[in-house]
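Our collaborator T.R. sent over the components below with a one-line note: 'Predict the complex.' Nothing else. No constraints on interfaces, no templates requested, no preferences about which chain binds where. So this is a plain run: every listed entity goes in together, and whatever single assembly comes back becomes the starting point for the next discussion.
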Amino acid sequence: MNFQERLADIRARMRDEKVALLVGMHDGAHFIEKPNPVMVLSSFKSLGPAAALLAPDGAMTLVVTPHWDAERAAQCCPDARVVGVDDVAEGVLGEVEGRAAAGTAIATAGLRFLPYDIASHLTFALPGVRSADKLVFDAARAKTADEIASAREATRIAERGYEHLIAIARPGMSEDELAVELKWFMKTLGAEDNFLLLCAGPHNRAVQPSTGRKLETGDIILAEITPSYRGQLAQICRTVVLGKPSQQLSDKYELVVRAMDAGIKAAVPGVAMATVCRAINTVLEAEGYGEYCYPPHIRRRGHGLGFGSIRPGDVALDNITMLERDMVFMIHPNQYLPETGYLLCGEPVLLTEHGAEPLTQQKAALAAVAG
Amino acid sequence: MLTSHPTLLIGPSDWDVDVMPREEFARRIDALWRAFPEAPCAIVYGNPAHHAELAYLTNLVPKLEAAVAILSRSGAHEVHLGGGPNMLGSAKPLTFITDIKPLRGGPAIGRRALEMKEGMPGTPLIIGDGYMPTAFHQGMDEAMGEEALNATAQVWTLMHRSSSHELNAMRESAFALNGAMTAITDAKKAGAGVTEAILAGEREANSRGAQDIRTLFSLDGGRTLQPFTTTLTTRVDPLQVYVAARRFNYWTEGFVALSDNRRPVIARARELLRQALAAIKPNVKTADVMALIYAGSRPYQMHPVTERAIISRLGLALEEPPHTNPGMSFEVGDIYSVRAGLTNGADEHAIVSAMARVREGGTDMLWTA
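Returned assembly:
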């Protein structure tokens, strides 16, 4: 599937649902868990709040902030009419108010993710517009060929980043220093953004944002390395020991890798995402860790990868989304075990007709660096 | 300036008691209570993209998900942090507030504010609510059963008065900015491609302790600006660059136009900036200095990137109004970003800027192009 085919699918869905104007909006605060309908509809990653207005005939208007970023948007979307403004709500209303008054069936995507200031302004001015979140994000549940290529490149960058981590991590360095250096290094490889959670400790409760804590011998470093390449995120989850790992730690890490392998094997077209989660849990439950397979220890075993659509959603027991070809998502057991603390282990996968293909060259394995 | 917002804030943000002592926050919170003598508590919202008010009152810059501080008149302040119970540890170094709990949604915040109000006559304050998700806001309002008193604008007013601690933080920020600009200039002179030069600047700012560094650059001689999207080996001249650096939560920013050759538009922009800075004194109207830049722009036009933002206040917020509104007149102790941007609409463009602190009789430069 390419971008134009996805857009054609969205327009067909609009006609089916009698939507005469689709308004996708995003506040420009790009976040791994916040889907971005503007990127789905236009591929444009905005600096500030932005909107993409799509008609069933394919006519597209992009409303972007700040006003001076309009030319970049026009270069990204040569077929769209681009309007540069400094207030996205005013800009959108300027485009749609007349049509709303004339009874045009307008639907919005992304409204519930907007900050109150923008959302309340729009809902007051456009009462009764319906949500098209499902319409837009269902159509983007599988990645386009370009998005898949970008996910592969982002994964390559993540693996290079991980190699760099192993090369430079040492006692006395702060978590922040290590995270900043890794982010910078991956940017030199082309990553325009990075959701890099990195922390360390002798017994981690979870992976968290880095702080000024200094690394110490015996620490277990957790790294969710998540570069974005051309707006597409990919992630690898890795665990590194500063010093010699104990036999127990090595054994437990093998267990979570085995659980991940079971999840990857279970991920095939036509099964529900919940099946993947269950396969991971089954391995861990068989070893007596059943109580650690649920909150507060674990919320999910993976997730979709934005920034556009985050479908197919979480690898969780309550996710009944049926897996399809060209879906890209994370499978990560990322398990807290009482003996070792939290362990990170995860791969990005592309669903093919044969099953889940890890995008990584090197599967997660417990690493050790000199302590 | 608006720049590309990162998906996760990565960089040193721990509260440093030597840089921003506990008394500084006590003074700020006391000023809030003085402005609202009957308020029993204040709900302060912030997220990784918008958190100036939260950082001002608590030092907390949420790196991953939103946070709410509930400030109590009794002094028993709380932080409610998004991301689940396992994230609480990562927030502890970021703030002086020790009572950190998981954020359980708008209704829970509303109920907690009501508990704090118990027995007190006033209405709880709300600060920074414009950035809340709508459902969160509605849930909080419903739980409270009354509308909180919006004190956001009052906090913005308080934030304008820079203390000596804030000035020191801004100077540290300017040190990182200066390092970035020098490194970019040196890299360009050495023949680096555009993103190589930008990345050299970012690395130098990092090495100077920057907690965040954001850049924009031009591939078309300064006509338009763009964020980093991928590496580009292209060498451009002139190279128009924007850099924002953050240290101890405080932002400084700068524009430079770098060229191997003498370019009249750059010289003119620099001269305009010099004149504008010379004109800035306490109580001088900001509009007068803007008019000076407008009037001096001929034969060029104002650059579209800066024409609506010639003078901005800077501090805990980098982006756009209301935080960055310059106000009616220059005030002693305030710190401003002053920009002179020119274009001929075709092939000559330049933006240069300075960070200036107003003092009696003139300005002190924190950084200048």
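Summary for T.R.: Residues 47 and 199 of chain B are 27 Å apart (CA to CA).
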